[in-house]
Amino acid sequence: MTSHAVSSPVALHGEYEERGEYHRQLDKNWKYYPVFVHKMRLVRKYLNANAKIGKTIDLGCGEGILVEEYRERGFDIVGLDFNYESPHVIRGDMTRLQFEDGSYDLALALDVIEHLSFEQQSQALAEIWRILKPGGRAILTIPNLAHFASRVTFALFGKLLRTSSIDRHPGDRPIQEYINLCREHHLEIVSRKGLFPTYPLISVLTYLAPGKVVPLHGLYNRFAAIPGYCFLNVLEVQKAAKSDQAKSLSSRRAAA
Fold first, then answer.
1. What is Dmax (Cα atoms) for the chain?
2. CA separation for the pair 37, 39 (Å, rounded)
3. What 3-state DSSP class applies to 77?
4. 175-184 and 118-131 are packed helices; what angle lies between their axes, rounded to 10 degrees?
5. Residue 4 falls inside a structural domain
6. pTM strictly above 0.85
7. Three-state DSSP state, 78
8. Which of 70, 77, 136, 165 is within CB 3.0–4.6 Å of 132 for a Cys-Cys bond?
């Protein structure tokens, strides 16, 4: 599949069938609300600064909020999601993408990787590498199991503060493991930013009144966001060429 033309009507599956198109009208009592708001601001800032980026795909895009917004602004962008389908969002599996090699200049995968199993994460990153053009980039936003509050509770009580329930985030892991996984799949880290350092005050206020702490999150994100201590990491990665050794290994695995 190489075209961005999608003719499917809107169809909701999975969580969207159960919850509706909840990203379109965000609940300010949602505990993740301030993180989501700042994440979207950061991604929009990146897209606005790279208006001539070329062909873009938003993997795991849900209702396709960014897809619709940036198509209206003239971007060559399409979405893909396992549980949602619309005229500009293809229903599909990001571990088995039906696109030709080197099809895209930019891929987005925003809060998606953690929903996959460890095995599927490797498959998804391999597919991102495959569909990107040489030198193409991807923006990955990924929750970090080793955020500050999780480290503290583990040190004191031997219990991690997971980024969500295990059934929702079966691939939950420390951010450094995700970074290593990207490198294993020849996706070089270009830049890294943290959102929501889970220090005591901001964590408590976020739990009590998520809709009211968006400005406070902005201050923390600007002045105190050590990525390894943050709940969410934003990674900009670039497709690197596989070494001859890696190519040989891949060929042997394929032959086996």
1. 56
2. 5
3. strand
4. 50
5. no
6. yes
7. strand
8. 136
Q: How far apart are CA 25 and CA 27, in angstroms?
A: 7
Q: Which residues, in sequence order, are CB contacts of 93 under 8 Å at separation 6+?
A: 82
Predicted pLDDT at 255: 42
Task: Establish how many alpha carbons lie within 13 A of residue 242's alpha carbon, considering only the half-sphere containing its beta carbon.
Answer: 13
Give me the residues paired with residue 104 across strands. 132
At 52, list the tokens: 């001539």
Angle, helix 33-49 to helix 65-72, in steps of 10 degrees: 30
What CATH number is given to the structural domain containing 124?
3.40.50.150
> Rounded CA gap, 81 and 115, in Å?
12
Q: Give residue 3's pLDDT.
A: 43
Question: Cα 178 to chain center, whole Å?
Answer: 11
Residue 256 is assigned to a structural domain of this protein? no
Q: What is the DSSP letter of 2?
A: -
Q: Which domain holds residue 195?
A: 11-246
DSSP, residue by residue, 81-148: ESSEEBTTEEE--TTS--S-TT-EEEEEEES-GGGS-HHHHHHHHHHHHHHEEEEEEEEEEEE-TT-H
Q: What is the pLDDT of residue 8?
A: 65
**Residue 7 scores a pLDDT above 90:** no
Angle at 7 between CA 101 and CA 77, to 5 degrees: 45
Of 131, 135, 141, 74, nearest to 104 (Cα)? 131
Distance CA 101, CA 23 (A): 31
